[in-house]
Design goal:
The complex is a heterodimer of chains A (95) and B (195).
Chain A lengths: L1 H16 L7 H12 L5 H11 L3 H19 L8 H12 L1
Helix pairs in contact in A: 2-3, 2-4
Chain B lengths: L11 H12 L3 H12 L2 H17 L10 H20 L3 H14 L1 H7 L6 H6 L2 H9 L3 H12 L4 H8 L3 H25 L5
The chains are: A mainly alpha (95), B mainly alpha (195).
């Protein structure tokens, strides 16, 4: 119960500080992708941490980019290489 | 092929051992990469075979302990450009034009770019739909997404595979993802997933 009495005010304050437009969104998009690719520099990580708390367009963009990346990684089915190719390769290098 | 001079001495036994231990485990990834590049099963078969035979022939330029998968992908990509892209039914011209146009309009599109696509809509898509959207991209853009998101190469590895600077890897990926979002959006809306 203690928590619930403090939580609303924190949320209110947070909501007031939330940004609904991002003035450097093109730059942020590049940083978000670098973060998801695990290729971000320290400066990019700092920028990301600052924005992800308060910038709604960046938060939404992060969710979308992550979702697309996860879909590519997890949903696309990998076919096994046909046995015949394996056999041809092995017979050619052994001849 | 790599021009790297190397002092690696490979005995016949070692050639086979390295081939089996370092190269063969990547054959499924190589096959899928070949298929997504050529979009044709027969071409993919030939491309994978050619690549592995080249890899065996030039095995002495592979330095043990380095990334075999990246080395193989680079050979496959080069074989594709040199042997297959030319003969495939003229798509390369179209691809190049499309690529050029996209590159040239990039400054403008980059600053204003937003695709009206929701994460929830993407979540609804099945693997085949995501794969179709990916396959609809020009080959250069398709390639960077495959290497990064499907095969998990680092930017540095991608730069080596593609023979381009890391900065170009970053910007090409960025453009590729913007194009992919457009394709995914039209998929999502045609499936009625859109808001």
């Amino acid at each position: 119960m203690n928590a619930s009495s403090t939580t609303p005010s924190v949320t209110e304050v947070a909501q007031k500080q939330m940004k609904h437009t991002c003035e450097h969104h093109a730059e942020c998009m590049k940083i978000i992708q670098a973060i998801l690719d695990d290729e971000a520099s320290e400066a990019e990580k700092d920028h990301f941490r600052e924005n992800m708390d308060k910038c709604i367009p960046c938060i939404e963009a992060y969710r979308l980019e992550k979702c697309i990346k996860d879909s590519l990684t997890l949903k696309i089915v990998k076919k096994p290489c046909p046995e015949s190719i394996l056999n041809t390769i092995m017979s050619k290098i052994n001849s | 092929m790599s021009e790297t001079l190397t002092t690696n001495e490979y005995t016949d036994d070692l050639r086979y051992e390295v081939f089996n231990r370092e190269f063969m485990p990547h054959i499924d990834s190589m096959y899928n990469f070949a298929f997504r590049l050529t979009m044709d099963e027969d071409d993919a078969n030939d491309l994978v075979q050619d690549t592995y035979l080249k890899a065996f022939r030039f095995i002495s330029s592979f330095e043990q302990g380095t990334n075999a998968k990246a080395w193989l992908f680079r050979i496959l990509k080069n074989s594709f450009i040199n042997d297959y892209r030319k003969k495939s039914k003229e798509p390369s011209k179209v691809d190049y034009q499309e690529v050029e146009t996209t590159y040239n309009s990039e400054e403008a599109s980059d600053t204003t770019y937003t695709v009206d696509l929701r994460a929830d809509a993407v979540q609804e898509l099945i693997g085949d739909e995501v794969a179709n959207a990916l396959n609809a991209l020009p080959v250069d853009f398709r390639t960077v997404i495959i290497l990064c998101d499907i095969e998990g190469f680092t930017y540095e590895e991608m730069a080596k595979i593609l023979d381009i600077p890391i900065g170009t890897v970053r910007s090409r990926l960025h453009r590729a993802r913007n194009l992919l979002k457009e394709k995914l959006r039209s998929y999502a809306s045609s499936m009625g997933y859109d808001s």
